[in-house]
Amino acid sequence: MWFSAAKVKGETEIGGCRSRRVRGGHCRLPSWRAHPPADAQHGPGGVACNPAVGGPSKSTLVHEVDALGGLIGRLADRTYLQRRVLNRSKGPAVRALRAQTGKREYSVAMRAVLDEASSGAGSTLDVREGMVDDLVVDANDRVAGVTTHFGGAFRAPAVVLTTGTFLGGAIWVGAKSLPAGRAGEMASFGLTETLGTLGFETGRLKTGTPARADSRSVDYSVMVPQPSDEDDHWFSFDSTEWVRRPTVPCHLTRTTTATHDLIRENLHLTPQYGGFMTSAGPRYCPSVEDKVVRFAGRESHQIFLEPEGRAIHELYVQGFSTAMPEHVQLAMLHSLPGMEACKMVRPAYSVDYDYLPATQLSRTLMTKTVAGLFLAGQVCGTTGYEEAAAQGWVAGVNASLYSASAPLLTLPRESSFIGTMLDDLTTKDLREPYRVLTSRSEYRLLLRADNAETETAQSRREQPPRRLPPKRPPVTSPAA
Asked: Are residues 321 and 383 in the same domain?
């Protein structure tokens, strides 16, 4: 896959195709993946935020991805800490499985899948590490490959761009910010400008993550235990993945009047209310200060303490996302029942990043401007592991089909929640992070978690052929 790149007047030339030389970017190709560091938690398959899978409508996405051959459901079944079925008292259309997984276990399991696929003489996957420096586009506006920061180059008839929160990312704690995609990992810069020169519109969104607390400093006796369901429920339709594991409980506490007073007194110190950051955040996953402001009449809000692993002493403080200064965060944590003496391992923060409105894509997730360039995940304006997994499957499959000059796959809106999401993203002007909701699908009584295998498989069998752009001529490697 490696070959030398010739420099031509400050540009990089690959088989006659010149790149726009702008630094910064992460991309993934069908046969090239960013290689994870020694800590697999932050490589491909790494769990960046809450190690939970599923929930209302999201569990249906996981079931659909599993029916199509994706891995998120299988890995969640292999690494769960606890599982609960939500909305049991309601109809089957809104019942949802949610699993808390082991953060490191999930990442190690995903890494093992990649290692197995990339080993042996017959391997179809090559794993490489590198910072993608630029896209290479030919004279006919078709992608030809990528170049890396240190001068490496990869030819590729298709490129899948999955930048997450790293594209121009900045994390915020109070009025202080740091260029990063997430804590401890550098952001990528320059690729936004490259995409702009190619004619793409870009925007800015934000998300956030709560503080992590030391589980050994928490008093669980005053909290409400949230044990796993006794009966078995699984994401995968493959019964060989149905292996029972010991479970770990979560715990429920609540905000207090003291918590709300602290938030109101310090609102001006947050990036959003202080005017330091203007990016739009997710409406359906608000920060704790947003909850206090929007629902001023509420005396308290639920806070769930969720373990991040069996051998990890960190608790994910679900429902307590904030960007307050660190000393205020600690006071807020100490105002919660059972957490009066807790130790904060890592502070919460907000992160804002660049994205491309997905109306610039077709439902195959290939861009309309550059043939062979596919996007998936938060770069399309979505939020959530499940949404990213579904888009990644569609973009990856279609990139492979495009490379083989085969008809591309399109999932109709009525076929699945994946199809509903893709239709929403590519046809509606969405200016806030998008997440799948049961109410978004007018076919929700038919598209359920319990029949996802049948409905999704049927949709694939009924795929009509699609016309492809003309096949581009073969690209040859220039001389070193």
From this structure: no
- Give the domain extent around 342: 212-347
Query: Are 185 and 97 in a shared domain?
Result: yes
Q: Are 164 and 23 in contact (CB under 8 A)?
A: no
Which pTM value belongs to this model?
0.87
**25 shares its domain with 172:** yes
pLDDT per residue rounded down to tens, the chain (480 residues): 222 222 222 334 454 454 443 333 434 333 333 333 334 455 666 677 788 999 999 999 999 999 999 999 999 999 999 999 999 999 888 999 999 999 999 999 999 999 998 888 888 888 888 778 789 999 999 999 998 878 889 999 999 999 999 999 999 999 999 999 998 888 888 788 889 999 999 999 999 999 999 999 999 999 999 999 999 999 999 999 999 999 999 999 999 999 999 999 999 999 999 998 989 888 888 999 999 999 999 999 999 999 999 999 999 999 999 999 999 999 999 999 999 999 999 999 999 999 999 999 999 999 999 999 999 999 999 999 999 999 999 999 999 999 999 999 999 999 999 999 999 999 999 989 999 999 999 999 999 888 887 766 565 555 544 444 444 444 443 333
Structure letter (DSSP) for residue 407: P
Q: How many domains does the chain have?
A: 2
Which among 304, 331, 347 is the end of a domain? 347
Domain harbouring 315, CATH code: 2.40.30.260
Q: Do the strands 32-34 and 126-128 form a parallel or antiparallel pair, or are they unpaired?
A: parallel
Q: What is the DSSP string of 81-150?
A: EEEEEE-TTS-TTT-EEEEEE-HHHHHHHHHHHHHHHT-STT---EEE---EEEEEE-TTSBEEEEEETT
